[in-house]
Design goal:
CATH superfamily of the largest domain: Formyl transferase, N-terminal domain
Strand content: 15-25%
Structural class: alpha/beta
Number of strands: 9
Strand order of the largest sheet: 3-2-1-4-5-6-7
Number of helices: 6
Largest sheet: 7 strands, mixed
Bound molecules: glycinamide ribonucleotide
Distance between the termini: 18 Å
CATH architecture of the largest domain: 3-Layer(aba) Sandwich
Order of helices and strands: EHEHEHEHEHEEHEE
Helix content: 25-40%
Shape: globular
CATH topology of the largest domain: Rossmann fold
Amino acid sequence: MLKIGVLASGRGSNFQSILDRIESGFIKAEIAILITDKPDAYAIERAKNHGIESLVMQPRDFDGKNLYYGAIASELKKRGVGLVVLAGFMRVVGKGLIDSYPNKIMNIHPALLPSFPGLHGQRDAVDYGVKVSGCTVHFVDEGVDTGPIIAQAAVPCHDDDTEDTLSARILKKEHEIYPLAIKLFSEGMISLDGRTVRLKCSKPDGTLMNPAEG
Ligand code: GAR
């Protein structure tokens, strides 16, 4: 069974949605470890509640970015992790990890990439005045939110939206498409053609199956 390593920096609601979908049997995989760069991340509490090992690894304890990400990679490899899931991990992942897990690191970003990459996807969308925003699951490469796109979901952006109201609307979609992308990966349904991700789960009419249909 696929072993997943989760990296998170904070609240961990995406981590929770993945845990829930594993426990319900929707995703057939196991979370081997949670690694966080913040000792006070609420994600640690969530891991504890589900009997999952967690490790705090902070960049300041390592001699540079390469050694930091190399050490994370070795903790993941030690536990047989086959997929790394960034769930609100607020750092640009370094080569030391990317080289160990090529096209096996996923991230969720709260905007419709390639629009509004970076740390403030929702605020940037509101400030720009877009009418539609959403979220994107993508593989991680060395750029900032530039890797191949696996799945996206759109939400309306209203005239009176604030960063908070838009974030809440987007987050609901995050909790749907991230578990779905992980499920597809765990079932070998995702392949890459250049930077185009092909999903082997289309209905005959070409639309993507609904997560609820399993
Ligand atoms: C989520 O909205 C996620 O998309 C975003 O941080 C939030 C984490 O929430 N990630 C990024 O902005 C990455 N650049 P969570 O801790 O409750 O899952």
